[in-house]
Every structure is written in structure tokens, then in C-alpha cells.
Design brief:
347 residues, mainly alpha, 14 helices
Length: 347
């Protein structure tokens, strides 16, 4: 009940902030059609905002980023996520971990398209928010003993990787190849995160009994022996989230780093910052391995008389293995898959 109230009321506040941001953009342009807003602002804004219209549009962009940041659970708008994830079921947690992030990322890409003059300012904000989200999410996740709280902080770190991909799109004009690579790397990473997260929670749902949720790490003890196939599927999902090759999660992280390092040295964001971001991503991938491998170790190397074989719906176990199949397949075909995203982004 507490988690429901927190998510509901904070969601109202975030929606109000988003609408307020839209109001500022409308006040700066007097237009409601996206193409027209972009045309008007492209003549008003440069590398820095100029005059009332420029600052009004920048204020609107900041408010929009704050509202969408809540939906994505990015720092500093993440504070609701651990309590909400821990206070609901595994099935609902899977939904909250994936769908709001998809919608918010698509909205951010459209925001880049509509506010071309604000791309440098947005890119700098996303770069900072992305790095802080990665560090904070992993630092808190490694301390957790409850699975859904751990995955809440993990999702905060993963959205940080995606935001860094969007920040890399500021290395050139929006439709130039470097920018397309930044956007494509973000959605490629989103695909890898979606498959791994869906498979992880599908495996947990399979083990849960009515009135007996799997919400603590120690409840996974021994399942590597009593439920080998589903434990194997969960392990593959955790390895992909860690970024172990050749699974798609490894390529998702690599493409985000490459997009940042491939930005224009003369662009609005110094390449030094993308080098720093790359170091942050690599170091935190190693930190994330600590708590992901911990789950695998509990399943296979800890004995527990409380361990039970999977007894849930067979569809949950099948879903987990379907996700694993695509994690491996798309990992082996990462190049063509990434090129598909690049072509999809090209107008």
C-alpha cells in the first residue's frame, strides 16, 4: 500500500512537471506541431540560448527531462524505485523495469528532434545524469539482500548507460552518422536490457508459489540443483546484464562506449568527458559483476533445505529460455542487429 501511494502521488507530480515543461516550450514558440516547434527553435537557439525564447525553451527542456527522468528512474529522480519495486510482485516489477523506460527514451529522442538548438545543453545534462546514475545504482545494488530492491538499483545503473548513448548523439548534428550511432546504441542497449530483465523475472515467477514470493537472495539457495534448467536461464540473463561476451549485453555496453569515443572532437561536448564516461562504464561493469555473480553463486554453491523445484506456470520457464535464445542469437549477430537500428534511425 505504501509503495502504491508513493508511486501514484510522485507520478502525479512528475506528470505535472512534464506538462509544465511543455507549457514553457509552447510559450517560447506558440506552436503545438512538433515539426513547427523544431523549425522555430532552430532559428532562435544556437550553442547557448539567446533571449527570452531561448531561455524559456531551455527551461521547458529541463522540466521535460525531470519528468521523463522520473519515468526512467534516473538519478536524482530515482528515490521511489527501490520501495515501489520491493512492494509489488515480480510480474509487476518486470513491467515497471521495462515499459516506462521504453516510453521515456522514445520521448527523449523526439525531444532531440524537436529542440535542435538545445541538443548541446541536453547532451551535457544527460552525460552528467547518466554517469551519476551508473555509479549510484551499482553502489547501492551491491549492498542489497532483497532481489527486487537489488534489481531496482540495477535498473537505475542501466538507464545511465542508455542516457550516455543519447548524450553521444550530441557529437554531431542529429542525423549525421555519429549521432545516429549514439541513438542506435541506446536502443540496442535497451533491447539487451529488456530481454535479460524479462528473462530474469520470468524465472523468478516460475519458482514462486501462491503466498510465497521469491524476494530474498537466500531463497535462491540450492535452486541450481533442484531446478537446473530455469536456474541456467536465470544465469544467462545475469551474465548478459553483467556484460559477458558473446551475449548481447556485452555488445550493448561496447556500442555505447564506442558511440561516445567516436564523437566529433570539435563537437559541443569535449571528447575528454566521453573518455571519463567510458572509464566509469567499464569500472562499474566490474562492480555490477559482484552482485550479479553473487546470485549465481547462491544458486549453485549454497545448500538450503528450503529450496524448492520450480512449480509455477510452464509458460514462465519457456519465456525465460526464449529470452536466453535471443540473448545468445543477437549477441552472435550483434553487427547486423546494430546496423538495423542505424538504418531505422536514418530519415
Amino acid at each position: 500500500m505504501e509503495a502504491t501511494a508513493k508511486y501514484f502521488f510522485l507520478g502525479i507530480v512528475a506528470s505535472a512537471v512534464t506538462v509544465y515543461g511543455i507549457g514553457f516550450v509552447y510559450g517560447a514558440t506558440g506552436a503545438t506541431r512538433l515539426a513547427e516547434i523544431g523549425r522555430l527553435l532552430s532559428g532562435t537557439l544556437g550553442t547557448t540560448p539567446d533571449g527570452f525564447h531561448g531561455y524559456a525553451a531551455l527551461t521547458g527542456a529541463v522540466l521535460l527531462l525531470a519528468g521523463l527522468g522520473f519515468k526512467m528512474a534516473a538519478v536524482p529522480f530515482h528515490f521511489y524505485a527501490p520501495d515501489v519495486y520491493d512492494g509489488t510482485t515480480s510480474l509487476v516489477t518486470a513491467f515497471l523495469s521495462i515499459v516506462p523506460k521504453m516510453a521515456a527514451l522514445v520521448a527523449l529522442v523526439r525531444l532531440y528532434d524537436v529542440l535542435p538548438g538545445l541538443e548541446p545543453s541536453l547532451g551535457r545534462m544527460l552525460l552528467v545524469v547518466g554517469m551519476v546514475s551508473i555509479v549510484w545504482g551499482n553502489a547501492m545494488a551491491i549492498r542489497q539482500d532483497r532481489i527486487r530492491r537489488m534489481m531496482a538499483y540495477s535498473s537505475i545503473s542501466h538507464i545511465g548507460y542508455m542516457l550516455l548513448g543519447l548524450a553521444a548523439a550530441d557529437g554531431a548534428s542529429f542525423y549525421d552518422p555519429p549521432a545516429i550511432g549514439g541513438i542506435a546504441s541506446t536502443f540496442f542497449y535497451l533491447l539487451s536490457y529488456t530481454l535479460a530483465t524479462l528473462g530474469l523475472f520470468a524465472a523468478i515467477v516460475y519458482w514462486e508459489r501462491p503466498g510465497r514470493p521469491i524476494d530474498r537472495v537466500d531463497q535462491l539457495a540450492g535452486l541450481g540443483k533442484t531446478s537446473r534448467w530455469t536456474a541456467g536461464a536465470l544465469s544467462f540473463c545475469l551474465l548478459s546484464l553483467t556484460g559477458i561476451p558473446p551475449l548481447i549485453g556485452f555488445w550493448g555496453k561496447l556500442f555505447v562506449i564506442a558511440a561516445g569515443l567516436g564523437c566529433d572532437p570539435e563537437g559541443p561536448i569535449s571528447p575528454v568527458w566521453f573518455v571519463v564516461a567510458g572509464v566509469v562504464m567499464v569500472v562499474n561493469a566490474a562492480v555490477a559483476a559482484g552482485y550479479y555473480f553473487r546470485l549465481i553463486g547462491v544458486m549453485y554453491f549454497r545448500e538450503s533445505s528450503d529450496s524448492i523445484p520450480g512449480c509455477g506456470a510452464v509458460g514462465a520457464a519457456v519465456t525465460a529460455w526464449v529470452c536466453v535464445f535471443f540473448l545468445v542469437l543477437l549477441g552472435l549477430a550483434a553487427g547486423p542487429c546494430f546496423q538495423f537500428f542505424r538504418m531505422f534511425m536514418t530519415p
